[in-house]
Amino acid sequence: MTGPTQPAPLLFTPLKLASLTLPNRVVVSPMCMYSASQGLANDFHLVHLGQFALSGTGLILAEATAASPEGRISPEDLGLWEDAQIAPLARITDFVHAYNGLIGVQLAHAGRKASTFAPGRGKGAVPAERGGWPVIGPDGQAFHELYPVPTAMTLEDIARVTADFGAAARRADLANFDVIELHAAHGYLLHQFLSPLSNSRTDEYGGSFENRARFLLEVVRKVRESWPVHKPLLVRLSATDWVPGGWDEAQTLALAKLLQFEGVDALDLSSGGLSREQQIPVGPAYQVPFAAQIKRELPDLKVMTVGLIETPQRAEGVLQSGEADLIALGRPLLGDPHWVWAAAQALGVAPSVAEAYARGTRISF
């Protein structure tokens, strides 16, 4: 147990993002559940996300939620493209807040990776007779031969999707979310514009780094118009495509400087997802160096890392080394929604537990 001469572990030290204070540094990484109908949240989402509030997770990030109807990865994705989708999500945020939790939403557009089957339900493009739809992207390159062939976005399409993100941010505020994360990683639309591998445009949205970053920066500005300034705005980036000639760490750093200037409060650093040619050296904490680079160069910008950080000791080590400010967990929390309890025990602190669950922690202090 921590005492007067033993400081609390950083994993359980509060962190301020804008005007929001997270009680600890454990974040539920956005994970697609493919369980919605017409973009509407339901009882599954309430139970799935609510459990993390009951176990004292510092911040919950809801799954990729489409800003435009054609931006869904699958027909079963969540959405915030229309007002009818606000109330079902507000039911979830109300529950989380009732148990002193904090919750954000990841706003996304899948671009050329849209209209595909959810895992376990098929492969590749969903045909029209099963609910599929035409998809759009920076150009006409498909992600895979089994995926839909996108229509290259016109300037009008770009303006419309940008406006859709702004409108989705307004709805997220009405649904009482505490945080927005923009999904510009894993080969989805905003990432597709960033990478020269998926963006062969010759207009002001293609070619140079400045042009390829333009769409994301315009989306950030539009979201900031609708999203209260006191609420944190995060951006998830793939720091590298893991493919020669693609998006890489140097461009990520240059973009991070621009995003900080635009009022982004934190970056969520992941990698890959854009190309089937990627060669990823997967291993424990393999993406931490991407966060560490940003922290070295931009110490005032908060950074979150993710990826095979499965033990409390490894998470605490990353924080103690100054390589990141927040630890996002996906599969570990799916496997054990009460991971935070075990982490508290391992690091010698008392967990924050909903009263009804307290006798189930088996932790004595």
Proportion of residues in extended strands: 15-25%
Helix content: 25-40%
The largest pleated sheet is described as: 8 strands, parallel, barrel
Rounded Rg: 20 Å
The CATH architecture: Alpha-Beta Barrel
- How many discrete structural domains? 1
Computed structural class: alpha/beta
- The CATH topology is TIM Barrel
By oligomeric state, this entry counts as single chain
Question: What is the tally of beta strands?
Answer: 13
Domain NADH:flavin oxidoreductase/NADH oxidase N-terminal: 11-345
Keywords: Flavoprotein, FMN, NADP, Oxidoreductase
InterPro entries: Aldolase_TIM, OxRdtase_FMN_N, YqjM-like
Protein name: NADH:flavin oxidoreductase/NADH oxidase
Any chance you could write out the topology, listing elements then pairs?
Elements: E1 15-17, E2 20-22, E3 26-28, H1 43-54, E4 59-66, E5 78-79, H2 86-98, E6 103-108, E7 136-137, E8 151-152, H3 155-174, E9 179-184, H4 189-194, H5 209-226, E10 233-238, H6 249-261, E11 266-270, H7 288-297, E12 302-306, H8 312-320, E13 326-329, H9 331-335, H10 339-347
Parallel strand pairs: 3-4, 3-13, 4-5, 4-6, 6-9, 7-8, 9-10, 10-11, 11-12, 12-13
Antiparallel strand pairs: 1-2
Helix pairs in contact: 1-2, 3-5, 5-6
How would you describe this protein?
This protein is of the alpha/beta class and 365 residues long. The chain has a single domain, classed as TIM Barrel, CATH 3.20.20.70. It is built from 10 helices and 13 strands. Strands 3-4-6-9-10-11-12-13 form an 8-stranded parallel β-barrel, surrounded by 7 helices. Helix 1 links the parallel strand 3 and strand 4. The protein starts with 14 loop residues before the first strand and ends in an 18-residue tail after the last helix.
